[in-house]
Protein: Kynurenine 3-monooxygenase
Organism: Mesonia hippocampi
Amino acid sequence: MKKENIMIIGAGPCGSLLALRLAQLGYNITVYEKRPDLRNTDISAGKSINLALSDRGLKAMQMVGVTDKVKELCIPMNGRMIHPNQEENFLSPYSGLEEEYINSISRTDLNALLIDEAEKMPNVSIHFNQECLSVDLEKTQASFQDYQTKETYHKTADLIFGTDGAGSALRKSMMDSHEFLFSYSQDYLTHGYKELSIEPNAKGEFQLYKNALHIWPRKENMLIALPNLDGSFTVTLFLAYKTGEHNFNNLTTPEKVESYFKEFYPDAFALMPNLGKEFFENPTGTLGTVKCTPWQSYGKTLLMGDAAHAIVPFYGQGMNASFEDVVVFNEALKKHQGNWEDTFNRYEKMRKKDTDAIADLAIDNFHEMKAHTAAPIFQEKRKLETAFEENTPKEYASKYRLVTFQEEIGYAEAMAKGRAQDKAILQLIAENKINNKMSLQEKLNLVQEQTQKILTEKDLLAY
Amino acid sequence: MKKENIMIIGAGPCGSLLALRLAQLGYNITVYEKRPDLRNTDISAGKSINLALSDRGLKAMQMVGVTDKVKELCIPMNGRMIHPNQEENFLSPYSGLEEEYINSISRTDLNALLIDEAEKMPNVSIHFNQECLSVDLEKTQASFQDYQTKETYHKTADLIFGTDGAGSALRKSMMDSHEFLFSYSQDYLTHGYKELSIEPNAKGEFQLYKNALHIWPRKENMLIALPNLDGSFTVTLFLAYKTGEHNFNNLTTPEKVESYFKEFYPDAFALMPNLGKEFFENPTGTLGTVKCTPWQSYGKTLLMGDAAHAIVPFYGQGMNASFEDVVVFNEALKKHQGNWEDTFNRYEKMRKKDTDAIADLAIDNFHEMKAHTAAPIFQEKRKLETAFEENTPKEYASKYRLVTFQEEIGYAEAMAKGRAQDKAILQLIAENKINNKMSLQEKLNLVQEQTQKILTEKDLLAY
């Protein structure tokens, strides 16, 4: 069988994984990346530099045979360390099962590993500093500009994959094309983010508990921190642009920023001597969701990863979803009989419902995280779920566990079941149908019955 | 008080109404319209040339004092005349109240009337054949090209209103601006549309019942017809692009089109001798929904009408919603204290939830119209609702009546109540809680109780 020449635009985590996998399958791969080679350059400043790698992403690492190497880069996080203001911190485990945890990993290190592995293949070549300007969809021809020489030129291939992120040039070319109907959405949250840091202490030790994702929920805004291998934490502030008492619009001086942190995040503030400097040196990131369809054009080009479905970070699933794309595409490709249009359509049919679901779940979580401290009914729900998971982890999985640790089901199914469970518990609490005379098993039975009822009713009404 | 110079881009129904209203309020208005003056030109071929004007649109006509003139252009439609294939036609009234009907009106005639009225004002000037290319948002400066001379030039104003339709140049300039976060979506349906016609007979008479909106529902596809003052009907075919047995992709010859019509729409086909010709001469229209936010930039430019919220035609509310925009803007302007940014923000806050709702309702109706013939539970629901409306029209209003005839409530409220009612009735039917031993009033009480329960529960869960 003919092995096509495949061009991949973008050598981020998704593009480099895709290059590696398609090379393993024997295709000839040329990758063009806009940025310099991150293995030789510090390009991380102000970019989200560590991420949560969990089961869906790890399944993709397994597929390409790099699990052991990736594990060396991982710091397990067993739960959320919640930092209330004026109260004791507490650890809220991600799961009732010990083996279910997520991993903090450096985006740069992981990306570098995947680029290294891809470049080891004889049928992969990667060109850095080459920015894609646009793609002629019918001719499968991309135009590039060399960042250093400023020279522009065209390259053609049998197929072009766009893994060029949320600002994808391939996607823009699809949107500009009037030949086919391209449905598209970009939605920004009212909040932006700022990367900050907590350095290791003089002995090189972690200054916060190492094996957790730290969260300082403050209703309107939120701070989080993830551990790095060097003993530091990457800290991210999620802050409103202009609403509420404190926002990017009015925190305009180092003094104002410091006084805000001192009031709302005092324990973190004590560990952040460079706060004022970092806040104004690092760029403010936007939080956007991108959805679109179709992902392919003319059976010759295909969007994958953030280029097809950029999501907000509140479920820790952005990179995992992009990695899972490659696993699902690998499945679609197994049935490939030389017809790429069918393969691309099959892939989108298998995948889009799930990437739509994780996009929506991630936005839900943004609102949940902002609001949940204020809602007693939500706290009661979490208490019940935690009891189920600690005592009968195999009989009950919360929405979070379904999404994060049950990679054998898709995001869409996890969302449907997780939302029905949430609704069931909230209804039962609101109607006082759960009381303390009941055993935990009786409560669980009630929740499961009610969940099933909600799911059945939903099917019924979808006439 | 200073009366600003206001530029309006687009002299369609919304732009010409807005020009008239703002002129009545004393502002100085200059309108630029891309197309030639429709009062002197036939530009309607293949465009949707008649529309359903209902209570929300009429309220706007009342506001500017043109109701009597508009009424002369209207043909009342009291209900839907359903044309099943192989069965008797039947009239399904829009409401249990005689005074509740919608009106077929020529888009061109109505637009011409509004342009005439606007031009009568000493403080309005309208320039045709001037296409807006882009808008400099901060400078409030628009660039135009003259269609005839091809000359390009700039014009500035104190404020710029974009009423330039679904493909709005002002909206594109907002989208291209990276200064502020512009959330945007465009969604296409899998179907397109084609305008066709049924001419009057030799005596100049209507060949179908005059006072109805005719519908030929065929599950996947659908034909509709609205009457015109000259005795003709404008017929619109809604057809899938490529799915199902018959679609735009495979109806490639006049013979195929005729044979499709003969099989599926025989009574209409008998009245359409020019079908084959019209089908291939008229363009295929797309069916898209556009949503975006914010509608304003820098307190200087504002999107209104389709430019801000293009919707699909299945609720007959597109023009009504755009007209209602001007009514709501008029309200927002009453509180105007010289701060246009506040005024624009207040307007969007008052309005966006409602235009989002009518966009969603219109898509719901597309699916409902396609599928409802196949679903017995839906038929049973409609039968019950019709009984309520015929016997107790003041105690019950279906979703359709709430949306179409109750202009005192917004679309969002109509949607919430209408959907809860639909869900309540479907649940009651599915659970066999409605039976024939009950009086109609007992059934109505049950539906109202269940509706209230659903609405209360929804509030509860929105923690």
Notes: Residues 210 and 227 of chain A are 6 Å apart (CA to CA). The mean pLDDT of chain A is 93. Residues 340-371 of chain A form the longest helix (32 residues).
